[in-house]
Amino acid sequence: MLTDAQKARVEELLSQMTIEEKIGQMNQESPSIVGGFSVPFPELIEMLNDGRISQEEFGQIMSTAKRDFHEDDIRAGLVGSMMGDDPVKANELQKIAVEESRLGIPLIMGFDVIHGLRTVYPIAIAEAGSFDTDLFERTARVAAKESRAHGIGWNFAPMLDVARDSRWGRVSEGPGEDPYLASCFACAKIRGLQGDRSSAENYVAACLKHYVAYSACESGRDYNTTSMSISQLHNVYLPPFKAAVEEGALTAMASFNDLNGVPCTVNPYTLRKILKGEYGMPGFVVSDANGIKECVTHGIAEDDMDAGVQAVNAGLDMDMGTHIFKDHLKQAVEEGRVSMEVLDDAVRRILSVKMWLGLFDNPYVSEENIEKYKKLPQEHVEVALEAAKKSIVLLKNEGNVLPLDRKQKISLVGTLAANSEEVIGAWAMSWKREDCVTILDGMKNAGANVTYYACGGPEGEINYDEVKKACEEGDVVVAVVGELVSMSGEASSKAETGMPGRQREMLQAILDSGRPLVTVLMNGRPMALGWEGEHLPVMVEAWHLGIQMGNAVAAVLLGDENPSGRLASSFPYVTGQCPIYYNHPSTGRPGSKSKFTSRYLDAPFKALFPFGYGLSYTTYEYSDMKVQETADALEVSVNVKNTGDRSGTEVVQLYMQDITASLVRPVKELKGFTRVPLAAGEEKTVTLVLAKKDMGFYNNEGEYVLEDGKFNLFVGANSEDCLSEQVTVKF
Ligand code: BGC
Fold first, then answer.
1. Are 85 and 46 within one domain?
2. Is 288 in the pocket of ligand 1 (CB under 6 A)?
3. Hey, which of 164, 265, 304, 699 has its CA 20 to 30 A from 536?
4. What does 343-367 look like in DSSP terms, one character per residue?
């Protein structure tokens, strides 16, 4: 990661540091609010979350609140990292760190840039569904540039939690339910964030989170316990982290949850042995906010000091949100509970990442860059638009109601269609209202003959007079329904993931009118849509697509874009099916019509819409699957034909099933995919290569094994609709 000269510089610095200065590097601060509030800060957050104040109002309050930026501590060398997205403030603080602290060590400024900073692109679960690794990389590159221009050198991203239970609100932040797709997403994000080192303005250090298995929280309840076999940990939850480290990822964030009884903040197995040892991640590990202190609440540490000692010894290098390292580590070292070697290792890692970022040479954002990014760069908007278009999934299109004709009178219904705050999605904080394009704006921009009727949304009552008017006055009704942004993301688990509020009744009223109905979904999780799947003839999954949402949705509805997005997560009929995922282990009694099989009495055992699923305005036919064995791979080819009258892009997917393994393996596992553009009537032979080294799995000793035997290979349009061939492989 560093040149020899840079390494020597780090060592030289380390040798000059006092113990207080070393511990200072391991301390992260965020601006704290001081005084002046008639409501306490936690209540303000509550007010934001429950909708009493809008994101914009919250922003206004925060921008006028008096804040402590810990200048004195920075001057004294007691702060290694700060959070924030204000470039002017970042420059001010860097100046104090560099010019007024004894050793002049710059700060590393960190921030949550999960799906874009100012240019907010689709939430990860949506973007993953584009199955477009080049796109994953380009959106991250945009985020990296904008971050640097805001003084941020370190993004708390990508979020790589493989999530299979959509009761968990944070499914929105990650790349879905599949470890292979998540690994491809991870590598692309690392290339995008860290890859372009031609100038310090182009790259940031990535922070892999949440390490690890946070998404497996029991019953989908955020921060809850996780428990799993070692093989499951290695086969499902670790792969994207491993792939990201192999791609060069420098830092990681320890997750809040306990894993098999040991909180990930103080877990030597996951941190020291696997992440830093086996994977060899060269940078540092930060706790999640308040994570170290929570180990006392977990009942695993006697007090703050004990929690800090356990954390640092387990391999956690930086404290986010508590002052436990700052307040207790010195004594812990003096008492011999933490060795100087452990401390030096942590500090060396932090200094090395700062060195890699070029902060020792220039920690400041240039005036020119600050100015440049005050406006949204057009090329960034274009990437956000492309990402939004490619993330839209056509779920149903009975009677080919879509695409709509510009001449049709369109009644656009639902408050979500016209609220610019609702396009953004969870965990985005630096966007501006003026940049957001709602579906109503997008339809108007595209020249549609559209009239808007609010009617109602995820919260509150439905105005049936308006619904009636919308149905009477339009040739077609486009209803935008789903979830508010605040219904997914952190601390937004739900026990019932169906359509919130009275929106289902609103949809029923539109159906009753007999008008053609197109339903556009805006949501941050795969919702339980059994009723909708049965009753609604046309459904478009549009997630929270970011600032260009409206233009992208309009392009799809009006047929300027042929939808090519696929689901990165299975959709259940009812919440009780959660967790539901296509790649579940084979049971001895696979679900069927017969009673004594792995099924429910009152719900289907399959997903309503499976992983990898998505329609288009054209149709594709698969034929002639062939498997060719070479010395180190299986080459799987198939003919794919566009049998419709429009060009489109098909996402061809390759799956594998190991049917003679020493551990029960998944019924299918994604092993490859490619986007194939096809003109109307065009046929192509598509070949996907499965390397033999990738056909193994981890056993319960955490060892990767390749076992000879029989495998089923599948190629097709989604995880259910495939051609298949059986092969026998010797490794
Ligand atoms: C979240 C992290 C985030 C951190 C800092 C925590 O509450 O779990 O994902 O990076 O806050 O904002």
1. no
2. yes
3. 164
4. HHHHHHHHHHHHHHTTTTT--SPPH
490 lines ligand 1 (CB under 6 A): yes
The β-bridge partners of 28 are: 81, 320
Residues 382 and 487 in one domain: yes
Q: Report the percentage of the chain scoring pLDDT > 90.
A: 94
Closest CA to 548 of 427, 696, 408, 425: 425
Active site residue 288: yes
The one-letter amino acid code at 400 reads N
Minimum-distance ligand 1 atom for the alpha carbon of 320:
5
Question: Does a structural domain hold residue 189?
Answer: no
Helix axis angle, 304-314 relative to 324-334, nearest 10°? Answer: 80
Q: How many structural domains comprise the chain?
A: 4
Residue 504 domain flag:
yes
CA of 594 to the centre of ligand 1 (A): 46
pLDDT classification of 37: cutoffs 50, 70, 90: low
Chain length of the chain: 731
**pLDDT tens digits along 530-553:** 999 999 999 999 999 999 999 999
416 and 329 co-located in one domain: no
Torsion sign, CA atoms 486, 488, 492, 497: positive
Q: Decide: 669 in ligand 1 pocket, CB within 6 A.
A: no
* CB burial of residue 202 (10 Å; 0-12, 13-18, 19+): middle
Residue 208 near residue 158 (C-beta atoms within 8 A) = yes
What CATH number does the domain containing 722 carry? 2.60.40.10
What average pLDDT does range 256-270 have in this prediction?
A: 98
* Ligand 1 binding pocket includes 289 (Cβ within 6 Å): yes
Cβ of 380 closer than 6 Å to ligand 1, yes or no, is no
| Active-site residue identified among 73, 288, 317, 435 | 288
Q: How far is the CA of 3 from the centre of ligand 1 (A)?
A: 32
Which of 49, 109, 222, 320 maximizes ligand 1 atoms within 8 Å of its Cβ, making it the mutation to test the pocket? 320
Q: Is the CB of 156 under 6 A from ligand 1?
A: yes
Distances (CA, A) of 307 to 298, 314, 379: 10, 10, 47
* Domain shared by 654 and 561, yes or no: no
- What is the number of other CB atoms lying within 10 angstroms of the CB of residue 525? 31
Q: Give the separation between CA 467 and CA 685, rounded to whole angstroms.
A: 49
Question: What single DSSP character describes residue 694?
Answer: G
13 and 61: one domain? no
pLDDT at 36 over 70: no
Judge if 481 and 437 occupy the same domain. yes
On whether both 632 and 493 belong to a single domain, the answer is: no
Q: Is 634 left (phi over 0), alpha (psi -120 to 50) or beta?
A: beta
Same domain assignment for residues 638 and 712 = yes
Assigned domain for 188 exists = no
Measured between alpha carbons, how far is 639 from 621 in angstroms, rounded to an integer? 8
Tokens 């490794």, residue located = 731
Q: Which among 48, 68, 88 is the end of a domain?
A: 68
For ligand 1, atom 5: residue with the closest CA: 289
- pLDDT digit string (tens) for 403-434? 999 999 999 999 999 999 999 999 999 999 99
CB neighbour class for 434 (10 Å; exposed up to 12, middle 13-18, buried from 19): exposed
Task: Of 307, 250, 302, 237, give the one whose Cα is nearest residue 276.
Answer: 250
Q: Where residue 462 sits, what CATH number does that domain have? A: 3.40.50.1700
Q: Mean pLDDT over all residues of the chain?
A: 97
Residue found under tokens 């190991």 = 658
* Cis peptide, bond prior to residue 403, ω within 30 of zero: yes
Prediction pTM value:
0.97
Domain coverage including residue 462: 378-577
CA of 288 to the centre of ligand 1 (A): 6
At 495, the pLDDT band (50, 70, 90 cuts) reads: very high
